[in-house]
Amino acid sequence: MLESKSADLAKVKVKVFVAVTELGSMTYALSxxxxxxxxxxxxKYIRHINTKLEEAYSCTTDGETLYCGGKDGHIKAIxxxxxxxxxxxxxx
Length: 92
Fold this sequence. Notes:
The protein has 92 residues and is mainly β. The protein is built from no helices and eight strands.
């Protein structure tokens, strides 16, 4: 969790973060504009990916996959190791 030490956000532009989840030693922070930021165990910025959610609202994990949800009902399933999209669910 990011409660005891600030994350290094020097390389991250001004963002509104809507969700944070951890998996192992990695921290994943989802911004409102749909970008998923990855931080290492020392809370240093590693990289980010665009989830292609127009308005992101939530992010959680089951231990292998990250699930990011948006306002429009879309859910993107992202492999936590490769950071590749593994599935996309659309609200009917």
